[in-house]
Design goal:
Layout: E1 11-15, E2 25-26, H1 29-35, E3 43-49, E4 55-62, E5 70-73, H2 76-82, E6 90-97, E7 100-106, E8 130-134, E9 143-144, H3 147-154, E10 163-167, E11 173-181, E12 184-187, H4 191-197, E13 205-212, E14 215-221, E15 241-242, E16 303-308, H5 311-315, E17 318-321, H6 322-328, E18 334-339, E19 348-354, E20 358-362, H7 363-372, E21 380-387, E22 390-396
Parallel strand pairs: 3-7, 10-14, 18-22
Antiparallel strand pairs: 1-6, 2-5, 3-4, 4-5, 6-7, 8-13, 9-12, 10-11, 11-12, 11-15, 13-14, 16-21, 17-20, 18-19, 19-20, 21-22
Length: 398
Amino acid sequence: MAPVVHRARPKYAAALPSPACLHELRVPGEFAARLGGEDGAAAAVVLLVSPLGKVWREELRRAGGGGGPWQLGGGWAGFAAAHGVEAGWSVVFRFERRGVATVRAFDAAGCLARFCTPHAGVAAGKSRPRFIRLLHTDDLEKMRIPDKFVQEHLTENYPSSQKAMILSPLGKFWRVELGRHQSGMLLGDGWARFLTAHDLSEGHILVFRYEDNMVFTVETFMQNGCLKEYEAEAADMTDDAIGPSSVPQQGVKELVVSPVKKKRKTRNENTCLEVYGNKPNLSPISSKKVASQKKLVSTVPRHSFTKRITRHDITSLIAVKKSICSSVGLLGTCEITMKMSMGNTRSWPVLFKMANNFGYITGQGWKRFCCESKLKEGDHCTFSVIETTVWHVTVVSS
């Protein structure tokens, strides 16, 4: 099995559609085992660190007298009542260590609930805004951002920004169009491709965290509520993904794409809602030209993908995923013009062909490009689609 890109702390997201969930909350066996639900055991004691900083002693037990699924019972109803959690809300549990989990609560609008009287010792301050979404059929083409979230956090940036940037669990930036509709603000063009690329569908749960300047990070949860993990091989997926997340930055022969450049104020991550803050490094990829060390203008091509060059790529052909071909309009045999500098007239015409499940670049033009650009095995090439048949190529030496 391929290695996982990264292993975040286990989490469990649960929608609370009915009052019954406020008395007994079902917990998937995978997460229950982390907390202390042993095979063959009927019950276990767990500690929940509430949004107010108070520690609640809860019972994790099996339904049906010991033979059923795991569920939180006992003091769960008291926990929900003490925090104003109602039917229609959602909660996210984060595993801290065996027998201990922290809890976040999201209101009926899907927004992170705020508790303004934190427990003594818990610092009050600003946290990054979040909202949660259980995907329904209507969300698979366009997804509505909660009105409350838009009013509180996005009004200043819209309509000056017509696009959102989403940092996926694979570490890739995705551009998604924003649209205004009578029903509110929607994630539109690019959203369906994002879902497809991340194998998301009806029943999955997404938690969005707003970083600033229309940039979001997203966590994805499976239909059973457990945090979804992705295989390393999936990181090669590109479609609307922008920029390589782990390409070495030394030896750059040309422009390296920078997905986003923005300034952000340092914020206090400890809040009345968050007991254990976890601040990831979201530094954008910088753009540099090695010869002069001058900063270049950030560019964000609509489609780009990066490949590590093999000997076969140089001597024969280089494959292009079918999803990329269809998304940029490559449907059959044609000629693509490759350029290594958009300000230079030098270009290489190469032959493109389609097979059943992929496209590929081949022929004398491609071999000439490899030779004259001094492309070698182990180099990383980023192909940025400027137009369907005009591609900008960045080469990062190995």
